[in-house]
Amino acid sequence: xxxxxxxxxxxxxxxxxxxxxxxxxxxxxxxxxxxxxxxxxxxxxxxxxxxxxxxxxxxxxxxxxxxxxxxxxxxxxxxxxxxxxxxxxxxxxxxxxx
Length: 98
Fold this sequence. Notes:
The chain is an alpha+beta fold. The protein has one domain (16-97): Rossmann fold (3-Layer(aba) Sandwich). 45% of the residues lie in helices and 12% in strands. It has a two-stranded parallel ribbon with strand order 1-2. It is globular.
């Protein structure tokens, strides 16, 4: 699987043009972030992609995030909930196969 990674340096403002160029190029989008899924920054990024490049998508926008739960006090439990390479790779494979 070949991927293009966009590392957003800021969230407000975020580099909307880079995101939209990537969707134009790949026809797909996987958003990965360490915040919760519901009401996280990924939801806003997904909305921008859907509003401005829906017609260019070959698959739905997918997100890999922290689960919708309070972060635990235990560092071990927190690390277990963060997106990791295996979770991201699985999502990329599902997205590529769509």
